[in-house]
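Z., the sequence and structure:
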Amino acid sequence: MNAKANNADRQKKPMSNKKYLWIWAPALATVTVVTVVANVALNVAGGWVASQFGSGTYEFTNAAESAGWDTEYYTSDFGSIEEVDEAAKSLVEEIAAGGIVLAKNEAGTLPLASSSRVTMLGRAAADPVFGGSGSGSVDTNSAVTARAGLENAGFEVNDQVFTTIEAFAAENPRGYIEMDRPDISTYYIGELPVGEYEAQSASFADYSDAAVVFVGRPGGEGGDLTQDMTGWDENAAPGQHQLELNQDEKDMIELAKSSFENVVVVVNSSTTIEMGALQDDPEIDSILLAGSPGATGLSALGRILAGDVNPSGRTSDLWAADFTADPTFANFGGFVYDNIEASFPVPAIEKATSNATLTSDAPFVNYAEGIYFGYRYYETAAAEGFIDYDEAVVYPFGYGLSYSDFAWKVVSTEAGEVDGKISVTVEVTNTGTTAGKDVVELYYTAPYTQGGIEKSEVVLGGFTKTGLLEPGASETVTIDLAVEDMASYDHLGNKAYVLEAGDYSVSLRTDSHTVAPGTEPIVYTVDSDVVFSGDNHRVTDLAEVTNQFDDVSAQFSAEPTDGKILSMSRADFAGTFPTAPTADMLVADEAVQKGFEPWDLEAAAAAFEGEKPTTGAQTDLTLVDMRGLPKDDPKWDELLDAVSVGDMTSMLLNGAYQTAAIGSIAKPQTVEPDGPAGFSSFINSSINGVAYPSEFLIAQTWDVELGAAMGEMLGNEAMFKGINGWYAPAMNLHRSPFGGRNFEYYSEDPFLSGAMATSVANGAATKGVYTALKHFALNEQETNRVNNGIATWATEQTIREIYLKPFEMAVKGITMDVQYVSDDEGTISETTIGAGSIMSSFNRIGSTWAGGSEALMTNVLRTEWGFEGFAISDFNLYPYMNPNQSISAGTDLTLTFQPSKSLGDTTSAKAVSDIREATHNILFTVTNSNAMNGLAPGATVTYTPPTWVYIQIGATVLIGLLVLAGGFMVTRRVLRHRKAEAPTATPERVAVGADS
């Protein structure tokens, strides 16, 4: 009985304070720490969180006195986004119709009768290449398919064969470039084995009017096409690459030739492929170069096959017969220095929030061919007798056939002084029986001295496209060529552009190789050398143009030299033909090694002699007050003085697809999506719009009016979607056909690229949309692009004449009309600004990161060309792309989400000055864009945080109260328990009977 009572007493005995605290103290501490960490993480990563869940709303209120003012600075031409989409789809079809090239048409095989019964062959018949992967990708789920395109034009299609292709394609994927993941990218051609076609051959007889054979090649960001198909094709022969027909395709074509009287090949690729065998094969009747067609472009293909549209496209690249014999082939791909272990400091928080894979590699690529690639090489090599042109070239640059014939007659020519222009007026007459359009191309040939400045035999100097000419109709067109554009850059001697003395031949051509029948070259004579140096710079330059890249040119030599790149020269093509880097070239010299070292922000701050600018001052000015003012207006200083460093850096470091709002100056958030083939966003699918054709196909139109129409249509789309900027056009060049991103770029030629990009950007500008011209510059391959930045080596002549030229044309040629309120009465005035934005590139110019190159981003871009907008980096997750270095050099906005990148210095006079200037550049573009629609000077702003912020605050308060309550509960319980366990006082005992 006593034992049971003792057990019961033990069971009822309360938990000791020590054990109680051991349970509850860690629990409350953990909850507290988790809450604090979560709040810190949300604040630090606020940019990314806002991109996913919203950044809140800014409500702008105009002053009462401006109530009747017209502040709709830009308006849409359409009543709804649905109307825009329908118009855009029609425009996409029009672009494709104007860009598809008729490359071969023996015996007038095309057009086919519209009621023809045809058999479609080739994987791409059922699985077309609509575009490319990566930031330039677009939503093509609702795009017109190849089959639908033919059926829309009235053709009947062999369903039995088509469904066989469709089923095979669904189970056997073609190669796919995973962005910056060469370890998991694939390069399968994915064509059906010929046996599967033969199994359906009984159906051929009922659909025998023609075999329409599709040959497709994909592309993608973050990887290039392979030069070695070993492991990707079980039938691959030694040396076989991805851009030649594989055995399955050859077998399929042989089957088509033996089974059909008419064989039409459609090339569904936005890079060139080796087509010599098909072009020379008399059993291949017709060939169409269709690029990547976008949402509705395959309807245009059907209409061309049926003769409803007369093809008028021209090649935007030269199509060579053997890519392995091209001067770029040996110097394309992965080359890494042996003696550099690249390492860049990464703050712990950046390391924790970035998924970038880091290595110690220092990759490089040598543009050893210099100016001699594409048609510039083949035309020059033929002129020098180094190659047999007919054997080496399948399709010249600017080549294309028509269903009609045209005759050209030179009506007049005018030749100005060296600061003027050459004008050629041509009458184009349709001498055929079918309505059609023609392209007039003008080239110049500069005098060349062996061993002197390198010069191509011909260079595109201008072009124009006629309207639709009915049979017998004529149109008169004029092409202007600025005389100074014929100057060559002499980086070795005068360190300037030079128009050398001699005779310049200006010729009208139907392509880069063929002088137009019935025309004679125009001779323009320069009596003595004209050196555009000092104040005698070219008319279009804002300041003197002289060498900026001596460190890059220094890696080249005119003679074979250990550790140097041998420059390819017209004087000795055989002796200077580029080869792959040898062992000595894998060893970087001290200057190159230094370029791969981290940028020294402390040294930059110490060397700076300016004063720290004012920040956080008071002003009544807001951003809309700056609209229409010159960039150097004194009011800008007052406005910038009022912005805090914190607000500025928050904007500069959260530049992914936006510029962030700054409430203190009533700057709204802007929206800036990808990409070159139409708006696309991986963080906001509602932005995704109609898929346009690839830039490769757009360039094949040779039609700047269509380019402008595309830009204007996207501007209309932007008005309904709240879009202000656009990461496009992409303007790098097709240096090699293996470039994975060639689909995203226009051409191998800088002039054609620059003209098309300028037209598109100017079209968008009519709706207040600024364009981020990308990727500035020399970003012609994807391999190793983010692997610490690939060092790109080219002579300054090559850099300026070839790779900077399209950007130069765009920066000098883009204009945006800006309406603004110019007085207190609401008067609307108008001014004009230039290009609004440009995107720097991942690669290095020499060993200096492009975005951190002051020579590129400030000296050339701003000082020489006069650019006043803002520059943004490419996506910045990588330690070598230092934000302090970028704002010092002239790259203002970092395309990332905080805290993936941070500024190492925000307090020195140097850093604050750079931060302020970067902010100024961004604000200048934004205030003159459609982001100001509806705002009048004096507008005020109120900010409402997003729902997730309220949830954060509420959850934090609730958890805080619970922790406090828990702490109070624990404290009270411990005190009570301690009191209950305290010993009870007892009276002192007195001994009875003790002695006294």
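Confidence is low (pLDDT under 50) at residues 989-996. The first strand starts at residue 57 and ends at 61.

Let me know what you think.
H.
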